[in-house]
């Protein structure tokens, strides 16, 4: 299903008529008159032309399916954009509105004129309230106002798109990788070695005014028994696993995993809320992927969710930009749901960029170069360990591009700020 937005045009008036049924307007006080529809159409076109609003038709595989937009408002004395949407009945329940709202949020982010997006769905409209919650909006209150001859009772939802503000905050970790040795009071240079061994999972790295994590021609797969021909060079800031032969260990990435080597527990740098940031350079090669993805330390098995600050596949980097994956992955935490999204970022991703998350008990806000890119409204409330790595992913035919090696992830710094 391909959901796209098209600028609202003269020929889209029949969509307004299709939206104007008792069923479609049940949460809005009922249908408008024919004259009110004509005025609404003219307003959409006029505000689009003036730039005061951006109104769109929503298409599914090229077929008109709904409408969505955003327009200028004053929200409690602050300049904001308001958004609203309608989806035709035959397209409801398919994720169309969710995809359209994501596209509108991206439009607002690119617009840049205002850094607050608000929505006011009716309290008696569960799907629209759930849509706001799932898109990272925060419910901030309720209200009522006269509307179409009645009273509309609404809930206020806010999506804060403001930049990351670190003014006056001092980091509890400001790792620049200086000197000639890795600080192993902070970093453990192995990739979940309990599923394999310390020898097989050992990182290849160089420290000298920055960190280089490297995959070489002779780098072997880290755990062929469980992960095939995947090669990785990785640092983490904690280690927890059970006895040999048990299934207890961090990052249970597939069923049936068994601990193969006993490990000493390490509690090195385990943030619990605050800001976590990395400055790193991605690798433009179809076999490479780099990532910074704190995961639960797993003192309790369910405390295993992932905060993906940045996941960048070399196959998704182009001359003028690329795609950066950010969000929350539940892994095996039953309290979380996956809310992960690839965000288009302009510029050379092989140059250094800052990737960060601002993490509070019920909200995570993600940033690239200090600019907001995504919010996730979920509760992830336990310590995490930092996970920083470069992967070489196997091709279906088993061929390795040896001439392109080594793959080198360059990291300038990692910072952690307390809540």
List keywords for this structure.
419 residues, seven-stranded mixed beta sheet, 2 domains, eight-stranded antiparallel beta sheet, mainly beta, Jelly Rolls, elongated, single chain, Aminopeptidase
Q: Please, could you describe this protein's structure?
A:
- The protein is mainly beta.
- The protein folds into two domains: 3-160, Gcn5-related N-acetyltransferase (GNAT) (Aminopeptidase, 3-Layer(aba) Sandwich); 171-417, Jelly Rolls, CATH 2.60.120.
- Helix content is 14%, strand content 39%.
- The chain is built from six helices and 26 strands.
- The chain has helices at 13-19, 34-50, 96-111, 126-134, 198-201, 224-227, and strands spanning 3-7, 53-60, 63-75, 78-87, 116-119, 138-147, 150-160, 171-175, 205-207, 211-215, 231-236, 238-239, 266-267, 274-281, 288-292, 295-296, 306-313, 317-318, 321-329, 339-346, 353-360, 363-368, 371-376, 384-385, 387-392, 407-417.
- The strands form five sheets. Strands 8, 9, 10, 14, 21, 22, 23 and 26 form an eight-stranded antiparallel sheet that branches. Strands 1-2-3-4-5-7-6 form a seven-stranded mixed sheet, sandwiched between helices. Strands 11, 15, 17, 18, 19, 20 and 25 form a seven-stranded antiparallel sheet that branches.
- A hairpin with a 2-residue loop joins strand 2 and strand 3.
- The two termini are 40 Å apart.
- The mean pLDDT is 96.
Largest sheet: 8 strands, antiparallel
Our count of domains comes out at 2
Q: How confident is the prediction overall: mean pLDDT?
A: 96
Assign an overall shape: elongated
| CATH topology (fold) name of the largest domain | Jelly Rolls
Task: Give the structural class.
Answer: mainly beta
Q: Oligomeric form of this entry? A: single chain
Number of strands: 26
Distance between the termini: 40 Å
Total helices: the number is 6
Quote the beta fraction: 35-45%
CATH architecture grouping of the largest domain: Sandwich
Ranges with pLDDT <50 over ≥5 residues? none
CATH class of the largest domain: Mainly Beta
What is the CA-based Rg, rounded?
24 Å
């Amino acid at each position: 299903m391909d959901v796209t937005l098209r600028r609202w045009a003269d020929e889209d008036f029949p969509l307004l008529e299709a939206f104007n049924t008792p069923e479609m307007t049940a949460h809005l006080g009922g249908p408008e008159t024919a004259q009110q529809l004509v005025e609404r159409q003219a307003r959409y076109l006029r505000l689009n032309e003036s730039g005061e609003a951006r109104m769109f038709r929503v298409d599914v595989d090229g077929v008109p399916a709904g409408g969505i937009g955003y327009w200028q408002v004053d929200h409690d004395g602050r300049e904001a954009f308001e958004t609203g949407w309608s989806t035709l009945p035959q397209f409801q329940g398919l994720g169309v509105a969710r995809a359209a709202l994501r596209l509108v949020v991206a439009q607002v982010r690119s617009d840049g004129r205002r850094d607050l997006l608000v929505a006011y769905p009716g309290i008696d409209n569960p799907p629209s309230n759930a849509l706001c919650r799932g898109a990272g909006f925060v419910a901030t209150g309720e209200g009522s106002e006269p509307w179409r001859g009645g009273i509309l009772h609404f809930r206020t939802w806010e999506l804060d798109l403001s930049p990351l503000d670190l003014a006056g905050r001092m980091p509890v970790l400001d790792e620049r990788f200086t000197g000639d040795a890795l600080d192993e009071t902070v970093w453990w240079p192995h990739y979940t070695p309990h599923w394999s061994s310390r020898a097989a999972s050992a990182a290849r790295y160089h420290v000298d005014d920055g960190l280089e994590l490297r995959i070489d021609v002779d780098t072997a797969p880290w755990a062929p028994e469980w992960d095939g021909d995947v090669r990785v060079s990785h640092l983490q800031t904690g280690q927890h696993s059970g006895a040999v032969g048990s299934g207890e260990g961090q990052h249970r990435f597939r069923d049936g995993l068994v601990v193969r080597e006993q490990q000493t527990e390490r509690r090195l740098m385990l943030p619990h809320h605050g800001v976590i940031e990395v400055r790193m350079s991605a690798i433009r090669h179809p076999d490479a992927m780099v990532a910074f993805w704190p995961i639960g330390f797993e003192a309790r098995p369910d405390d295993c969710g992932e905060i993906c600050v940045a996941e960048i596949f070399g196959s998704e980097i182009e001359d003028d930009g690329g795609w950066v994956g950010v969000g929350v992955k539940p892994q095996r935490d039953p309290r979380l749901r996956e809310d992960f999204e690839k965000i288009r970022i302009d510029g050379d991703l092989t140059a250094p960029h800052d990737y960060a998350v601002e993490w509070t008990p019920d909200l995570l806000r993600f940033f690239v170069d200090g600019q907001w890119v995504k919010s996730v409204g979920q509760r992830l409330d336990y310590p995490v360990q930092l996970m920083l790595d470069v992967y070489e992913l196997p091709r279906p035919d088993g061929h390795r591009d040896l001439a392109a090696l080594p793959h080198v992830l360059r990291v300038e710094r990692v910072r952690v700020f307390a809540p």
